[in-house]
Every structure is written in structure tokens, then in C-alpha cells.
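[Q] Does anyone have a clean C-alpha cell version of this?
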Amino acid sequence: MPVEVAQLEQHRAVLTGHCYRMLGSPVDADDAVQETMVRAWRNAERFDGRSSVKTWLYRIATNVCLDALSDRSRRARPLEDGPRGTPDDVLETRPRPHWLEPVPDARVIPPDATPAERAVMRQSIRLAFVAALQHLPPKQRAALLLTEVLGWSVAEVADGLETSVASINSALQRARATLAARHVSLAADAAAPTLTEAERGLAEQFFAAFERYDIEALARLLTDDAVISMPPYTLWMRGLPHITAWLLGPGAACRGSKLVPLAASGGIAFGQYRAGGAEPWAIILLETAGDRIVSLTSFLDTAALFPVFGLPAKLAT
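[A] Here you go.
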């Protein structure tokens, strides 16, 4: 049963989402999906129709990701990299493959997804969830995503990963225990398919306060124990005194920045340009709890990430 190119391409978004959850990087996910398409096209004559084209592609993509993960260690979330820093610390950097990176929602959530599907997809690309996945061995990670996100049966996962049902059940038990210990779950029944009213309100307030560079207004949006981090720098800080001192000290060069609202990693995000829009500076990702911000991460690798988000080199004035 020959497979047409169009049949492969219509699944690119969901495959990119799957590869992103596995690998923690939109750049690496794009590479993995491209390799998936190449392998699928080369083996199109072997597709026997016993499963759907989408299921067949997921199997290929999972194996592509497992191959990639065999060659590198897990990506780190900034706040897990410690130790806790201060505004006076010397900044040290680590290379791009060390860090988790944000992903545009539109790249991984197809426009025809149902509200329920969209809710699960949004929750499963949240930075906290993807970070927790990085603590799982690759096959546990694959088994968990195939069952919890894609809804495969244990038997289907065992077939796709070429192992036994007992092995998958054991992997799932260990994976769920690891995520529970990190206080992370999909909680799909409580996840919204779009930003909540509280999140939209926070986004609007943050946008206005940051562009005014009103540090007092920004501080009112943060929890007392909020964290701030700036990959590729290893520095991260916890608590309002450190955060406000940083924003008024080394971070004061951000005064006069312009923000571009983004839909990224299932939450609130912005593209940041300094110097009134002339200098691309960061992808800002906010993590929230209720009506407050608990984490502010500025991803500074604009050369890699701005093209992913379709952001220009500078804003028109």
C-alpha cells in the first residue's frame, strides 16, 4: 500500500510535538522529523496498512529520537542547574545542547485538534513537564508519551518498541513514580485548550510593566519565591530581592525593550528586543500559578530560536 508524500506531511505538527517532548529542543525536533520523513519515504513500499499512517510515522519518529538520545545526555532546565545565584555572580555559559528550549505552540499543535486534544498537547509541552521527562531513561520516556499523550495501549507500545508488555508496564510504573516524585503530571482534565483568563491578564500586565520597565509593577506580578534564569548562562536566582536587584542592576540594559507576544510551550511568552526594537535579545517564557508568575526564563540564544519563532532580526520603527 504505497504512501504519498502528502500523507506524510499532514502529520508534521504532531510528529514535531512528539519529538520535542522526547528531545527538549525545537531545533532537534525539526531534525528528527525530517529524518522520520526520509525513513518513511525510503520504506514507503513496506507499509502494509495494518496500522494508520500516523501510527506508523510515530513508530519511526520514536526510534529516530531514541537513536538521537543514545548520543547525548539529558537537557537541563535552568532552575535545576543550581546553585542559587546572586546579582553579583560572574556569568558562566554552557552550550545550546545543554539546555531545554521553548517551542512555538503552532509548530506542535495542529489547527484541527479538538479542544480536548489541544489541552493535552499544551500541557505536555509545558517547560516543567518536558523538564521532568528529561529525568527518564529514553525508553521510559517514549513509553510514557506514547500512552499518556498519544493514548496508545500497552500492547501497541510494546509492539512499536519491539519489547514485551511486561517490560512496558514496568517502564510505565517507574516513569510515573519519577514524575510523581517531581510533582509533575499531565492533569489533562484540568488543562485548558487556550490561555486561561488569569493567564491572559498576567500576560497583559507583564507586557505593559516590562515595556515601561516598571520594576515595582513587575514585582507585584511575581510570587515571593519566584525564580529567574537566562540560558545559556548558568545563573539562576530565587526570591524578589535578588530578582529586583538584578533587574535594576545588570538587567537595567533591558530598559526601553519592546516585546512581541508569542504562543510558546503552552503558556505565556514574548520575543524581546532591546534598544527600542533594534537588538534581538531573548525569548521570555513565564510559568504561572493562579494569578502570579513563579518563573521567568529568558532564552538568550536568539540566533537559534528567533528563526524558529519566525521573529525578524529587528522590529520596524
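[Q] Thanks! Anything notable?
[A] The chain has a mean pLDDT of 90.
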